[in-house]
Amino acid sequence: MPGRPHLTVRRAGLLIGLLLLTACGGPVEVDSPDLDGADADACAAFVDALPSTLADEDQVEIDPADAPAAAYGDPAIVVTCGVDGPEGFGPGSSCEIADKSRWYIPSEQYGDEPRELTLTAAWSRPRVEVVIPADYWPNATAAVMAQLAPLVRELRTVGGRCL
Questions:
Q1: For residue 13, is it within any domain?
Q2: In the record, which residues are listed under signal peptide (predicted)?
């Protein structure tokens, strides 16, 4: 029958599409902090300025799409603007400095084994958090901090020193 091969091609295309959708897993779910006007504006500008690749990973879709966040790669490196202060952070907390931007990393995340890392630009307002899955350990940490440093420096800096 002349119509039968067309139907088979259509079904094959649908099957391939479903397989790709399943393999990609769809958009990355991200937090969407509740922000006031000034922080919302600053985060919108920050997210708009984010690069299309981070630590050699391409940007991927997020859900909700209007969150002040971005995701890169699979598993996703997630960048979120407007987060609360990280647990354990306080005056005199230690930090890593990359291109004049200061990043807080909880002390329990330091080590010689691959692990998920949470970096927070805790001395900036609004704060920016980056969650880096263990798959990218150790090289992505320095790359992420260096790539995001110019954007973090554009945010308002609050006082305080880091060790």
A1: no
A2: 1-25
